Structures are given as C-alpha cells and as structure tokens.
C-alpha cells in the first residue's frame, strides 16, 4: 500500500503530465489534495487528462508547454501562480528517448533534440520554478533523471549524457537553495511500463524480456511507483533529504 499525504492548500506543477509517470504523479498529487497544474506538449492528451481530473472533483489547470522552449516554460509557471497564487511542488518529468545508436553514428540533430528536452528542459523548468519558490522562501522540486543518469549502456550515449546532466543540475542547485528553504532532488526510474517504453518495445528498440531480466525484482515498474517516490520526496517525510538521485529501478543499480 502506498503512503498517503495531505497536500491540501499546496500547488504542484507536473510536466509531461499527459501520460505515463507524469500522469500518475499528477493524479497522486490531486488525490492528496493539491491543486495541480498539468503541462504537456500534446494538446489532445492534455485536454483528456485535465477533463478527467476536473471531472473527479480535483482543482487542476491544463497548460500546453514545450519544455524545450524557455518562454513556454516561463508562461506555464506564470499561469500557475496567476491561477493558484503560489507554487509549492514540481515534478520536472517531461522527456523523450532516442533510438539506440552507435556513438560514432549519432547525429547532432538527435543529440540536440534529446537534450533540448531531457536536460535543457529540466534546467528551464527548475530555473523558473525556483524564481517563484525563492520569493516564497519554500518549495520542493523533483527532477526526472533515470537509471541512465547513474550508469552507462551501449547505444544510449546521447540519452545517458542528458540524464547524467540532470543529476549534476539537481545536486548543484540543491546545495544553492537548501539554505533558502527549498529542497531539490532527482528520481531515477528503471524501466517503467509507460507508453514511451511500450512504443520502444513495439519498434524493436527495447527487448522487454531483457529489460525485465535486468531488474532483480523481475518485472517492469509501474508509473504509480514513481509517483509514490516523487510524492515522498515532496513531503515533510523527506524534510532532511536534499540533493539525492533516488533510484526507483527494481534493483537495477544495486548490482
């Protein structure tokens, strides 16, 4: 059973909230009483999720956002504060994967696109979230890295470079902002049963059986398991946790 939290009166922002880990986390924040701002680059998915959570009686706001565009990120944070008056928690989750590639054959376009979202996007989100939280003197941010931020894998150089970078951003900003009442951490998911992973499996870019075998728990993770970790990191239960890169990977990195 997952723990429960009371985030009544608090405001959370989740990027990539249209599906997968972002959607699971947005639901969990809403079910725990928070007002939630949902952002996603996919307008159809965003409308569907916003309608679902609104229909369930939650306070939510859907804001289209491309995290690779800093102005779009700034507008999303502005909309959050304009609608709800503050920003207490953020899960910077939006990310993409790239097909496996020999490092010598990786194109600059692919490298730049992956890291515009996975690394620069996290930087932009954190930057604008911190500006608001700094003014408040409080807040909690969780950045989405990956097991790919902790290890290397053949064929994944561009993706892993960005995910390693997210951990560097997290640790440095965490040291800077801990004295100001703001906690920043990262979560490092293993292979999770999300639409992105399903798409990779369908395209032959990921072997499902091999992915399961590589996680000692002997299964894929569920988006809700990442959501549970994110909510804990944002909660008072993690009040002394600063600058960590928390593996939630079924034991992959324990070997």
From TrEMBL:
<protein>
    <submittedName>
        <fullName>NAD(P)-dependent dehydrogenase, short-chain alcohol dehydrogenase family</fullName>
    </submittedName>
</protein>
<dbReference type="InterPro" id="IPR057326">
    <property type="entry name" value="KR_dom"/>
</dbReference>
<dbReference type="InterPro" id="IPR002347">
    <property type="entry name" value="SDR_fam"/>
</dbReference>
<dbReference type="GO" id="GO:0016491">
    <property type="term" value="F:oxidoreductase activity"/>
</dbReference>
<dbReference type="InterPro" id="IPR036291">
    <property type="entry name" value="NAD(P)-bd_dom_sf"/>
</dbReference>
<keyword id="KW-0560">Oxidoreductase</keyword>
<feature type="domain" description="Ketoreductase">
    <location>
        <begin position="10"/>
        <end position="190"/>
    </location>
</feature>
<comment type="similarity">
    <text>Belongs to the short-chain dehydrogenases/reductases (SDR) family.</text>
</comment>
<keyword id="KW-0520">NAD</keyword>
<dbReference type="Pfam" id="PF13561">
    <property type="entry name" value="adh_short_C2"/>
</dbReference>
